[in-house]
Amino acid sequence: MKYYRIGELAHLARVSTRTVDYYTKIGVIKEKERRSGNHRLYIEEALTWFYLVNIYIMKEIILLNCLFSRKDYIV
């Protein structure tokens, strides 16, 4: 099993380390363990969650764009 430190995970997911912290805090991803020096380690599943969240966000943006681009929406 491959472990990632927070910086590595952030780099691979193309997000900031603050985003990794936030997703950990709200429970979207979980740290697997802490090593000496209080280094957090994440497993590859955390990276998969970032991809899934990004896909969900993009789908929501596309949906909102479609809804608001309709000419007959009510203001």
UniProtKB/TrEMBL annotation:
Pfam families: MerR. GO terms for molecular function: DNA binding; DNA-binding transcription factor activity. Residues 3-50 form the HTH merR-type domain. The chain crosses the membrane at residues 49-68. SUPFAM superfamilies: Putative DNA-binding domain. It comes from the Bacteria. Keywords: DNA-binding, Membrane, Transmembrane, Transmembrane helix. InterPro entries: DNA-bd_dom_put_sf (IPR009061), MerR-type_HTH_dom (IPR000551), MerR_fam (IPR047057). This is Zinc-responsive transcriptional regulator.
